[in-house]
Specification:
five-stranded mixed beta sheet; alpha/beta; globular
């Protein structure tokens, strides 16, 4: 369901994905509630078909790597698509706020893809 990685592995793991990628930076000692919320939202609304989730383990990351990713604290959720950051949420979340954060951005991607497909269809059928 989720992949546990270090910061140096993220770029290789996250690139080339055809779906959005969520990088979750959660303190594993105190973040059990945040993990349960993430699991619930993932299973209830998304699943592997719509979203790939990577958990960034605190013990495997240096301050320099935190700076490179722009991580300011824990928990922090960073959403990527097409190798670009498309959203970031810092701080404790509940089910509704995490769901809204993800859905808004994933729906925007879906609409933009649909527009592109429609434009190509209109262009090809007018020829």
């Amino acid at each position: 369901m989720f992949t546990l990685i270090g910061a140096d592995e993220f770029e290789a793991m996250a690139t080339g994905k055809s779906r959005p990628v969520l990088l979750a930076y959660i303190n594993f000692d105190s973040g059990h509630k945040q993990m349960r919320i993430l699991e619930k939202v993932f299973l209830k609304y998304f699943g592997d078909e719509l979203l790939k989730v990577f958990l960034l383990k605190e013990e495997f990351i240096t301050q320099q790597q935190l700076n490179n990713l722009g991580i300011l604290g824990t928990p922090e959720f960073i959403l990527f698509y097409d190798e670009k950051e498309i959203g970031r949420k810092l701080g404790l979340v509940d089910e509704e706020s995490l769901k809204s954060f993800l859905l808004q951005r994933i729906l925007k991607i879906t609409r933009e893809k649909a527009k592109g497909v429609l434009k190509n269809y209109v262009r090809s059928s007018s020829n």
